[in-house]
Automatic annotation (TrEMBL):
Belongs to the peptidase M14 family. InterPro entries: Cytosolic_carboxypeptidase, Pepdidase_M14_N, Peptidase_M14. This is Peptidase M14 domain-containing protein. GO terms for biological process: proteolysis. It holds the Pfam family Pepdidase_M14_N. Residues 214-431 form the Peptidase M14 domain. SUPFAM superfamilies: Zn-dependent exopeptidases (SSF53187). GO terms for molecular function: metallocarboxypeptidase activity; zinc ion binding. Its cofactor is Zn(2+).
């Protein structure tokens, strides 16, 4: 899935139908009352697969070959039920239960070492038939509402389409809604919520990937960094890639430095520092796509990009929670902590990316005496649309009214959702 991109076509929000949500809610109530009339067949169980040495060996074999193409050619004429898989980078699906001819209840895996945080999903589906509608109900969501109720669609990637050179990731799905279900959270008087959508697959015997949002993996990041390093002209653009630190699992956390080459007329020590970070929450893959666009804009040959490189030194940490991204987490890292709450007192052992990012900021500020001009941390949001800003109380350089008048931002920046200052917000984060 590395290098798989989405279309540049503007996406149309789906029209929510109150009748769809009402019918799904009524159906959920019927299932509770008449459970004996339903058949439940577990078709995918990650826990059982992890415990099986035989399946572990087969999984490793599958990783060493292009299994998607082989499976498409082989087919499974004798089985009509869907087949699922989630044992790949950023994948998340714990169990799939068939509850109807073409309807499945899906259970997501919580973040590593956690029993909560169920939102990000990313799984493989195969053995489908075209011209039939398949309904997927993700039944252990916890947020009280979702953009799936306000026009958002899940994304899908078809291997057959990709082999034919067509568009990669696309929005798909009908009858989409998000509602509270009848499953009770353990030890609480609250119920889970269901994300429900129906998909008509474009091809029979295809392999498709379905995700909450366009995935952007750690492997994709490293491929992009390698591509940037090979494509730039060092006489025009200064790009350096350093290792900021190693993660808990020993993965390299890259640090990018982008500016213009030094000259006598424009020495580097006269340029202001700009710090950019992203993906502290693994489920916010849109933050990585915004960071991708930012870096590619800074490395472009436009007059504006050249002017920025001449005036500023950009320090970029494109992925703060690498382990969470790799393991398909939604918010936490391997220590079951929200890294965005660890800035005040990060541990060098438990929170290495936060510790070293903060150390670099402090080194520039107090040792080099070069306080950053601005620090920007890219996030996504599960219930807000468009672009909005959160800023510190003494952030004089950020003029929201100016941003709203900018031709580049006025179509997407929503001023009423910007919050400057955010003292209470920062206090809640422990900053």
């Amino acid at each position: 899935m590395v290098t798989a991109r989405n279309s540049n076509i503007m996406e149309i929000l789906h029209s929510k139908s109150i009748h769809v949500c009402r019918n799904k809610l009524i159906e959920s109530i019927k299932q509770t009352i008449y459970q004996s009339s339903l058949f439940y067949e577990t078709v995918y169980d990650l826990d059982s697969l992890v415990d099986s040495n035989r399946n572990k060996r087969q999984y490793l074999v599958n990783l060493l070959r292009d299994n998607s193409k082989i499976f498409i050619q082989r087919g499974r004429e004798d089985v009509k039920k869907l087949q699922f898989e989630s044992r790949f980078e950023s994948g998340n699906l714990r169990k799939a239960i068939r509850v109807g001819l073409r309807e499945y209840e899906l259970i997501l895996t919580p973040d590593v070492n956690s029993s909560t945080q169920h939102q990000w999903f990313y799984f493989e589906v195969s053995n489908m038939e075209t011209n039939y509608k398949y309904t997927f109900n993700i039944v252990n969501c916890k947020k009280i509402n979702s953009q799936f109720n306000f026009g958002m669609k899940p994304v899908i990637f078809s291997v057959i389409d990709a082999l034919k050179g067509r568009i990669g990731w696309t929005r798909s799905g009908q009858d989409i809604c998000y509602y509270q279900n009848n499953y009770c959270m353990q030890g609480q008087k609250k119920n889970y919520f269901t994300t429900s959508f129906t998909i008509n697959f474009p091809h029979s015997e295809d392999i498709c990937y379905i995700a909450y949002h366009y995935p952007y993996t750690y492997s994709q990041l490293m491929v992009d960094i390698n591509r940037w390093a090979r494509s730039i002209n060092p006489c025009e653009i200064y790009l350096r890639v350093d290792k900021l630190c190693d993660t808990l699992n020993g993965n390299e956390n890259p640090l990018l430095t982008i500016t213009a080459p030094e000259s006598t007329k424009n020495p580097i020590n006269k340029r202001k520092l700009v710090f950019l970070t992203a993906r502290i929450h693994p489920g916010e893959s849109n933050a990585s796509w915004i960071m991708l666009g930012t870096v590619e804009a800074l490395l472009s040959h436009s007059t504006y990009a050249s002017s920025l490189r001449n005036d500023y030194i950009f320090k970029v940490v494109p992925m703060l929670n690498i382990e969470g991204v790799i393991n398909g987490c939604n918010r936490y890292d391997l220590t079951n902590e929200d890294l965005n709450r660890c800035w005040k007192n990060p541990s060098q052992i438990q929170h290495p990316t936060i510790f070293h990012t903060k150390s670099l900021l402090e080194y520039c500020s107090f040792i080099l005496n070069r306080r950053p001009f601005i620090f920007i941390d890219y996030h996504g949001h599960s219930r807000r649309k468009n672009v909005f800003l959160l800023g510190c109380p003494n952030l004089e350089i950020l003029n929201v009214n100016y941003c709203s008048e900018s031709s580049q931002l006025q179509q997407n920046l929503v001023i009423r959702t910007c919050y400057i200052p955010i003292l209470r917000y920062l206090k809640n984060k422990g900053l």
